[in-house]
Design brief:
alpha+beta, 14% strand, three-stranded antiparallel sheet, 3 strands, 101 residues
């Protein structure tokens, strides 16, 4: 999976995930929520689908998008573990430095 941080670094993708966490949206509804062209929004939607963060449901001629809540929660837990590991490592280094003083 592409780094979750890179996906969330983009404000458009972050807003798409935020919107679709609340309810399903059609592509047209998502496009109307942004000051961006339909192809521009579709590019972001496709990235999120490729990384399985967005689920798609087809009904007739419409596609409905929603956040893949379970995968997003797993990724958030993993990100928290990574951040905690980094912080612990930095605090251990700081502690070692202070003990040398």
């Amino acid at each position: 999976m592409v780094n979750l941080y890179k996906l969330l670094a983009d404000p458009t993708r972050k807003k798409i995930l935020s919107l679709t966490a609340k309810r399903e949206y059609t592509q047209k509804e998502l496009v109307s929520s942004f000051d961006m062209s339909q192809p521009g929004i579709k590019k972001h939607i496709d990235m999120l689908i490729d990384e399985k963060l967005l689920l798609i449901r087809r009904e007739g001629k419409y596609n409905y998008y929603r956040l893949n809540q379970s995968l997003f929660e797993k990724e958030a837990i993993q990100a928290k573990k990574e951040i905690n590991h980094i912080l612990k490592s930095k605090l251990d280094c700081l502690n070692d430095f202070l003990e040398e003083e």
